[in-house]
What we know:
Structural class: alpha/beta
Shape: globular
CATH class: Alpha Beta
CATH architecture: 5-stranded Propeller
CATH superfamily: L-arginine/glycine Amidinotransferase, Chain A
GO molecular function: transferase activity
Oligomer: single chain
Organism: Nocardioides gansuensis
Number of strands: 15
Keywords: Transferase
Helix content: 10-25%
Radius of gyration: 19 Å
Protein name: Amidinotransferase
InterPro entries: Amdntrnsf_FN0238
Amino acid sequence: MSAQAPSAVILIRASNFMPNPATAADNAFQRDVPEGQSDATTAAKALAEMDAVAQALRDAGVTVHVFDDDDHTRPDSVFPNNWLSTHSGGYVAVYPMYASNRRHERRADILEMLKSHYRVQTIVDYSGLEPDGIFLEGTGAMVLDHVSRVAYTAVSYRADTHVLERFCADFNYEPMAFEAVDSHGVPVYHTNVIACVGTDVALIALGMIPDVDRREQVRERLSVNGRTIVELTEEQVREFAGNAVELCGRTPEGKRRYIMAMSGRARRSLRPDQIAVIEESCDIVAIDIPTIELAGGSVRCMIAGIHLDRRPQQAPVLTEAVEAINEDNPVTPDGRYVAMADA
Length: 343
């Protein structure tokens, strides 16, 4: 199995989704809700899209842990990759968030599920840096090459180089920071809208890195182990073509398969030759999520990958607390987890 492509993920089923006004200032991808559309309609459409993503990943053979969130004060909770990442060897990172109304998206029950079902050795919590105005929004701010141990990072308010260096020292990654801007000179708010690193293929808008020398250094570092680079245009980035993630699933016969999960909008923006290169190493799984994309993120933002070893199956312990996080005894008929106390 590739260290790059996790076979299990966490999704949040947020029943009160809404584009977050607190993030609109520096997120050039964020859009307003269509005029005349009610909050209830927006939330219902988004919920259906969240369920479609979960089902598409399950159909592809990926293990999906879905957590319900009914808190109306967490409009962006559908994007858990900004506060959580997991790493081989049993390591988990918790991150400092730029928008103050996103900081209570961090949830103790998700961390408890990880400790219950996977081998977690250490949780490193950087959220205490928030009062100092220092932020690093997880695998939104960083696109991680888990094979070569490189953290590709577009510098922004949400990706401070000091905490990036600290993360890389703690988790044994090489920092690869760079400036990235659009054609209007606006900085890219999250690296994962312009880049996706898979096992054998990488999607990246190298043209949005204005420093030519740094651009070539990124290109070289991405391809050093034979990885093929699919260069994206800025127009494709605006269609969320860079906001994809490689996962490891299973065929109905139990054979391992690698998939590239992205939105339908993203796939439609790709040229046939780009699709052919991607499909040399993985199958594209595309899901339409137009409502969620109003918030400025797409399928990759919705997925927190689990790069941890599974614990051996144990006989169920019949206590109320364990039942709430035990996927063999789900609290809802479709296997979702109820929300518990915040972290």
